[in-house]
Amino acid sequence: MSRNLKTGVMYPRMAVIGCGLIGSSVIHAARAAGVVGDVAVADASAEHRARIQELGYADLVTADPAEAVKDADLVVLAVPVLAMSGALAQAAPALKPGATVTDVGSVKSAVAEVLTPLIPDGVFLVPGHPIAGTEYSGPDAGFAELFQNRWVILTPLSREDDPYLEAAQQLVDFWRALGANVDRMDDKHHDLVLAVTSHLPHLIAYNIVGTAADLEEVTQAEVMKYSAGGFRDFTRIAASDPTMWRDIFLANKDAVLEILGRFTEDLQALSRAIRWGEGDKLFELFTRTRAIRRGIVAAGQETPEANFGRDHRTP
Ligand code: NAP
Prior knowledge:
By secondary structure, this protein is an alpha/beta fold. It is 50% helix and 12% strand. The chain has two domains: 11-186, NAD(P)-binding Rossmann-like Domain (Rossmann fold), CATH 3.40.50; 189-312, 6-phosphogluconate dehydrogenase C-terminal like domain (6-phosphogluconate dehydrogenase C-terminal fold, Orthogonal Bundle), CATH 1.10.3660. It is built from 13 helices and nine strands. The strands form two sheets. It has a six-stranded parallel beta sheet, sandwiched between helices. The relative contact order is 0.12.
């Protein structure tokens, strides 16, 4: 039976492994919603640990994932995608029977594959991904409203036993209490959807900013000065954390290459239309894409309220 989370503490003790933008936002949002009791944090960075102590939002701060997860009812893995298995391997021996382990990684299939064998019997792994973020990193970057009205995709394992279903439902309720909308999805489908909506756009941004930086005919000063013409938005996306994005592309290789292939074909078609002066083709595409943008706004995923004056994107 799932508890009604808004009425009180759902997880008396929560452990967060990796306390950067997402980990610290989970802590702020869970504390604001009153759904967790004690919070323990493990982070590999001594500098970050010192800063978390200073900010005072965790009850225990340690370098040791096993120490953090001891007695925890909910464990949130919030490290870069390729660091997930190492973090869980360290924590696993200390996991409490009955605990739920989730992650916030931007790639789901590869992460589930490496985490599943590390989970002890009696512990429930329910992978997840909050579709919310900013280009900022580290323990100072988090804020309680990050997940408000954003989507969280959970990709539960294919298990039908009651204890597992209850644990998954409790995690759904947890994210809802943090202000998020929750969807469940097959992990491979998640990876394909995110390859289109997030991973490819980031790849394009990294590429175009790199191309502009390498152009010999255009000076760096001109790139900065005239960046309002679309380029500025790409530079914001291309400022995203290099470790995180390296891991995403390596872990979601198949889906990204699949979508990149489609994208390249469509780009070739556009290039032909420009070369042959086929304005109607360009006009038709630009009209369709404008309608998509309006649909996103209508779905409430791009409003000043949803953004809280900050820049939210979807890694
Ligand atoms: P972040 O701000 O860089 O925070 C990650 C933290 O984990 C850092 O303090 C990092 O320390 C620490 N860390 C790295 N490896 C560790 C390990 N093995 N054990 C313990 N701590 C470790 O990253 P983030 O943006 O919060 O992203 C975390 C996860 O959320 C990633 O899997 C990402 O794919 C996912 N995600 C991110 C966003 C986004 O917009 N940023 C959105 C949705 C999901 P160092 O800095 O010293 O390495």
